Amino acid sequence: MRADAARNRQRVLDAARTLYSARGLDEPMEAVARAAGVGVGTVYRHFPDRSALVRAVVADRLTHVGGLLDRARAGLAGDDPHAAWEQFLTGFLDSGLPLLLPVLVPRARDADVFTPELVERRAATATAAGAVVGTAQALGLVRDDIGVPEILLTFASALRPLPGLPDELNAALLERRAPLLRAALRPGGDPLPGRPVEVADLLAAIATP
Q: Which residue, 65, 129, 131, 193, has most beta carbons within 10 Å?
């Protein structure tokens, strides 16, 4: 693929992810084209229909987060695991996946969104995240009474702008939420009730019947 075509494809994916996160997965291709600043024909050249675009957005974010997890795994085994964990959190918070999760979870069993290949990749990514968080917990970087699904869904809900608030107020609130989330993951504080929700619990809950 030529460099300009690859750039346009990524612009479409990024625009679609932003729209889907804000409005759901049923946004028309024309809206995605406008948001990406390309013609609708460009969108259709890369993605034949909306389902193909949605799947590509999911695959793109799984690939991106998978790279973050690979680097975190290596960094946690290195000389500065604290820096590696903080870099992973920054990357994950900036990845766009937390904002996309609330619209993906209700469609977790939808074959038009999650093909068997994407279901397998979703499980592999979640399992890798569980391993990274487990390592961070063993190193004393993360409280040990919390599981990956709780981290994911807490981030997903906390990072969403509140409808109806002015943009500048939402921006001010969101700027403070990321440090608050980081602090909430650190060891210490009152113990949480019940048991941690583990990756296996999440995968079982969204498994195809």
A: 129
Query: pLDDT tens digit string along 22-75?
Result: 999 999 999 999 999 999 999 999 999 999 999 999 999 999 999 999 999 999
Upper half-sphere CA count for residue 11 (Cβ side, 13 Å): 16
Among 4, 20, 172, 190, smallest CA distance to 105 is for 20
What would the pLDDT profile of 127-149 be if each residue is shown by its tens digit? 999 999 999 999 999 999 999 99
The pTM is what? 0.91
CA 191, CA 23: separation in Å to the nearest integer?
A: 36
Record the tokens describing residue 20, joined without a space. Answer: 């889907």
Are residues 158 and 116 in contact, defined by beta-carbon separation less than 8 angstroms? no
